[in-house]
# Entry
Amino acid sequence: MDLSFKDRIYELAKQIPRGKVATYGQLAKLAGKPKAARTVGVIMKHNPFAPVVPCHRVVGSKGDLVGFSAGDGLASKKKLLKEEGVAFIKDRVDLTLCLWQKKF
DNA sequence: ATTATGACCCGAT
DNA sequence: AATCGGGCCATAA
# Structure
């Protein structure tokens, strides 16, 4: 399969369960490029699988809501994650409880 | 092949 | 704690 870096990102993002969040660095790492967090962001922005890839479940390395220019921006994202059951600390996600981990 | 860009990350001040 | 700057890397033109 000609799975490019971005394709892996999509696959990984699709696997993020509800109520959990993953970091760009995490996805990049799982995709094989631990330092390509930036590229992950660019790919997420393109987001060709909009409803399939829960890009709103992808946050910064420390759980901070980076990026996102959709709708009301970070506000919408925060609200959505909250609704999904993600623990929030002010404007930050509680990675201690809601950080997704690929355990396969 | 090269250039330009970007929803990041981390160390230093 | 907040701010600044540099690095790193895939994608598109």
Q: What stands out?
A: Helices of chain A lie at 5-14, 24-31, 37-46, 74-84, 95-98. DSSP finds five helices and four strands in chain A.
